[in-house]
Write a structure and sequence with these properties.
By secondary structure, the protein is an alpha/beta fold. It folds into two domains: about 110 residues, no CATH class; about 230 residues, Spore Coat Polysaccharide Biosynthesis Protein SpsA, Chain A, CATH 3.90.550. Helix content is about 55%, strand content about 10%. The protein is built from 13 helices and seven strands. The protein has a seven-stranded mixed β-sheet, sandwiched between helices. Strand 1, helix 2 and strand 2 form a beta-alpha-beta unit. It is globular, with a radius of gyration of 22 Å. The relative contact order is 0.15. Belongs to the glycosyltransferase 2 family. Keywords: Glycosyltransferase, Membrane, Transferase, Transmembrane, Transmembrane helix. It holds the Pfam family Glycos_transf_2.
Length: about 375
């Protein structure tokens, strides 16, 4: 019992240090970006918006981008042959905006091929990728474009918040998950090049080195990240101004969304392994080991009389504390935000571990190319 308490105290302390270090690194990179920018830098920016069955949100997204305080932009909407009115709605807006181009895609379905085809049209020196449900403040583009006046900056991925957050379990779980990701992974404390492909800026000369993106990948952002990591590109995360996105409305959609991320990620690992990078096989096996660690530790205890389960349970409690503390955000859940983070962290962990376990099994063998689009919120 005493050992368990010591393990817990140690892990909680380490968790606090990791959270603070992650947040510090994020703010340090953001400050570097915005302190070394020139507001006289005015390149053409191509805003690329891939769409598929987005009739509920596409008009609002286009109009939001067009309200940007940065005037030197072109907006390219590339529609993946939607079966609803997405294309017609966007095409109609071409009459209102001279800098809007709406085209239908020619190649296979999926966001990666949409990016490939959009880049054949884009003329900008800087490329911004947005999802069809995105909303940005008026200073979003200008604030980040001016950062590219620094020749050391070739890419920026930006912070995001939910504009449809409600005080319900599925939204709280996503809030905890993403706050954890930002503090631990976006800070690059443990891994390099983890980012979301929504609110992603590239200098043109860099994105052209990544093309074409594999049309069959389920995770275009992870596919790009692996290439960038190999190229040893310096990535920058900007915490402000942030993009606004939609959270999934129910656990069914959230399950399908996260399963695509994880299955797609594991498929990319095996692809890189087959190309000769054995490190990705190690990473895959390491993730599997972590997911199965509680079960393995219990088996070792039973077979060999070890105390691994005591250690692992304390370790998991430390991770639990890490996620809870990193998810403290009074803007969303008010004065009781830490209480709700602690309350819902086990739900989030159980959900994610289950999705990871299923994806771990399906990843190497899954050949499905279908993308799942979560239900859109009409707000």
């Amino acid at each position: 019992m005493e050992n368990w308490i010591l393990y817990v105290l140690y892990n909680v302390l380490v968790s606090l240090i990791i959270v603070l270090l992650g947040k510090y690194k994020n703010e340090k990179r953001t400050n570097y970006l915005h302190e070394n920018r020139n507001p006289d830098y005015n390149p053409l920016v191509s805003v690329v918006i891939p769409t598929w069955n987005e009739e509920e949100v596409i008009e609002n997204t286009i109009k939001t981008v067009m309200k940007s305080s940065y005037g030197k932009i072109e907006v390219i909407v590339i529609d993946d042959n939607s079966t609803d009115m997405t294309y017609e709605i966007a095409k109609k807006l071409e009459k209102d905006y001279d800098n809007l181009v709406v085209v239908k895609k020619q190649g296979v379905r999926g966001k990666p091929q949409s990016i490939n085809e959009a880049m054949k049209i884009a003329k900008g020196e800087i490329i911004l990728f947005l999802d069809a449900d995105a909303r940005i403040p008026e200073n979003y583009i200008s604030s980040h474009i001016f950062c590219f006046s620094n020749p050391n900056v070739d890419m920026i991925f930006t912070n995001f918040e939910s504009y449809n957050f409600r005080f319900r379990p599925v939204f709280i779980v996503q809030e905890i998950y993403f706050n954890f990701v930002k503090a631990i992974f976006y800070s690059n404390l443990f891994v390099r090049m983890i980012f979301m492909g929504n609110g992603l800026f590239f200098r043109r000369k860099l994105i052209e080195k990544l093309l074409p993106i594999d049309p069959q990948t389920l995770v275009d952002d992870f596919s790009m990240a692996t290439k960038l990591s190999k190229m040893k590109v310096k990535e920058y995360y900007s915490t402000y101004p942030y993009i606004e996105i939609q959270y999934a409305l129910n656990f069914k959609d959230l399950w399908k969304q996260h399963k695509r991320w994880y299955v797609g990620g594991f498929r990319e690992m095996f692809k890189k392994y087959k190309e000769g990078n054995k490190g990705y096989l190690f990473l895959y096996l390491f993730v599997g080991f972590i997911v199965l660690l509680p079960v393995l530790s219990l088996i070792f205890d039973i077979l060999f009389g070890l105390h691994t389960f005591t250690f692992v349970s304390a370790l998991l409690f430390g991770i639990y504390a890490l996620i809870s503390v990193s998810s403290f955000d009074s803007r969303k859940m008010g004065l009781f935000s830490l209480f709700y983070a602690i309350l819902y962290t086990p739900v989030m962990m159980g959900f994610e571990f289950l999705v990871l376990l299923v994806s771990l099994i399906l990843g190497p063998f899954n050949k499905v190319k279908k993308w799942h689009r979560v239900e859109r919120d009409r707000i």
